[in-house]
Structure prediction request, 684 residues.
Amino acid sequence: MLLEARGVSKRFGGLMAIDKIDFTMEAGQIASIIGPNGAGKTTFFNMISGYYFADQGTITLDGKRLTGRSPEHVAGCGIARTFQNIRLFPGLMVLENVLVGMHRHLSANLAQIVLNTRGMRREEQRAYEEARELLIYTGLEGKEQELAKNLSYGDQRRLELARALAVKPKLLLLDEPTAGMNPRETEEMTTFIRRVRDERNIAILLIEHDMKVVMGISERITVLNYGVKIAEGTPKEIRSHSEVIAAYLGEETPEES
Amino acid sequence: MTKQKEHLFPASGMPASQLLAWVFIIGAGVLFYLLPNSAIAFIMFLASFLVLYKTPAAPLIKLPVAALWLCVIMPLAGLQNTYYLGVVTQAGIYVALAVGLNIVVGFAGLLDMGYVAFYASGAYIYSIFATTQAANFIHFPWAHFPISGMWFWPFLIFGMLIAALFGILLGFPVLRLRGDYLAIVTLGFGEIIRIVLNNLDKPINITNGPQGLTPIQAPALFGHILNQPLDYYFIVLVAILLIIIVARRLEVSRIGRAWAAMREDELAARSMGVPLVKMKLMAFAIGASFAGAMGVIFAAKQTFVDPSSFTFMESIGILAMIILGGMGNVAGAVVGAVSVVVLQLQILKQLSDYLGQLSAEGILNIPSQIDPAKYERMIFGLILILMCIYRSQGILPAKRRLASWWEQIRTRGTKKETEEGVDAARS
Prediction:
């Protein structure tokens, strides 16, 4: 078991944003969380990444407890993420954005940097090479020295992925990776996500609204509604699940019929 | 690489603008050497460094010129005119402070309005021991105060450590603050330090309160007492050089990148694994330590310190230097600091003297109320407002910089090849 959430709850004032959710993921799996707006999907993501502390329950990665840990610690444990509304480092170069993602994997300390030691230089050179390879991998070759804010929307999404991959995660959280993309870009992104899993064996958890993407890519789907898990299963099971259909399309009430 | 080689021999096929730049640089150097008392020559001499910085030429050519100007022409002219040497030394101290503050404000994006507190802590730590002051509260039979001038050098390190400690002390409570709130708390911290220094003459007299400390022991090196203006000029020069090298190395390092990421988007930086607390404290501590070292130098140079040297206006002045020069840019901090000090100590003063001379000769009758030297802050403010409107990134806007090996990596191919390249470079 890679990721395991047990009875996780989060309350914002009177609103039960996440209500005793159990959730598990295997290594190398692609899974999705779906649900109507306000269902608690992003809140759940934020709890995994350490922005919110759970009021109840525990989250573990590879048996290591994540609950109560800071976002930087969670990243260090091997969880990287992208954001619903892209959050790059806009004033930094594309290459630097990726290099920041490698922070935990570089070891140079203050003294080594001040003295410009050979070991530090070699480590940095290797990091530059690795960052460049990630940019080639994500199709951003040749744009390394551009500022992130000057990239097109699609390229910014790619860069966010490249930066997340630089963390060398075991689990990648993608918050609406195809939001605002046209069908062709969506298709490319779907292929890319599958490729990342196949080639790097990274488990991927998505929040997604595009049902075509969700059904096409996910091995497991979890459906949230009002902070409660209402269904879980393979795409096929979810498609015919009555509660899910009700949550998305609304229920027919007896008076109306 | 190839671009730099084109300019290695400036005589061959150089564009007219570049030729003009070199004429200016060399002309300014020669002129200042010949006329060390001319204000125009002095300002041209200082401007020649900016021109030199902006001229596209190989470092192999630029660095010796800069070294010659700083280590030969400036000292020679300075022997003729010690006032200018003093101006340059004072400017140099501010350059170091501006570069240090630039690490906190420019690199890490933490608006620190109490930076002068660290400068003060460095100055006082040396002053207390390098005067008879320490004898008031330290009574060891083997301890004699003032300590000998040789201690100046270790005290540069102590000054850095004390200031870094204060930096961390300030850093802890403000970890969660940003922008305006951070500015207010740091401002308060700066004032607290000054007020403490002002009042720590009782119950135990540690700082001697508002009377200040004097005479402060001059540094000594191998039996030579370094108390000449030229000595301080060179001490400051070496200090600036080291600080600039450290700042530039940090800028392109993993620490510098983490700072920049934190400045751009704190939450995103954290989710990429950048340890926020450590990086913020590091920025405060490193920035503060530079100020601490400069405080020790300042105290030795002035032979007198009192709390009035470390007011809030000083902090604002240093902040204004980096805003004027270009926030986040080491060269910008240098240019900003020099321009502000020269404006204060040179241009406005000269203008006042000139107008005073005119009224003394009866040509003009200018009342002393509108003496330009008295309007220093106003002119200063005006310049800042104009800068904000017309060139908000400062004189030299910050530009992201990658390490020098990027060019090689970019033009080289795959990882396999590069690893061979690294191995070849090692052997």
Q: What stands out?
A: The first helix of chain B runs from residue 2 to 6.
